[in-house]
Amino acid sequence: QVQLVESGGTLVQAGGSLRLSCVASGRSSSGRTFDTFTMGWFRQAPGKDREFVAAISWTSTTTYYADSVKGRFTISRDNAKDTVYLQMNSLRPEDTADYYCAAGETYRTVVVRDGGVDYWGKGTLVTVSS
User: Fold this and answer.
1) Of 61, 49, 48, whose CA–CA distance to 109 is shortest?
2) What local confidence, expressed as pLDDT, does residue 29 receive?
3) What is the C-alpha to C-alpha distance for residues 118 and 95, in angstroms, rounded to an integer?
C-alpha cells in the first residue's frame, strides 16, 4: 500500500515563503512505486471544497498550476528520495489551508490535475497571517 506523509506546514506571515515536502513509501497493488506516479498538491480552506494546486509528471517534464498560485508556487520532485515538494513564495492570507499530497497511478498529468487521485496524504496546515 502507498503512504504519503506531508510536512512543512506552519504559521507564516504574508509575503513569506514556505516549502512543503511529501515522502512516499510502499507500492501499489499493481506493483508501481513513487517514481512512476504522477504527483500533486491540493488544498482545502476552512468551509471550502478541496481544490487543485499543482501537479507534476513522473519525469518532471510536465507541470500544471492553479491560476491562483501560478508564478508564486513551484512543484518539484526527487525520485531518488521518493519526495515531492511544493515551494510557496509570496504567500497570501488566502493561501491558508490544509495542504494535501496526492498520487495518481497514471502517466497523464492532467488526470491528477482534474482530481483523478489514487492516494492521499493526511495533510499539513499552512496558516498565513496578514
Assistant:
1) 61
2) 86
3) 24
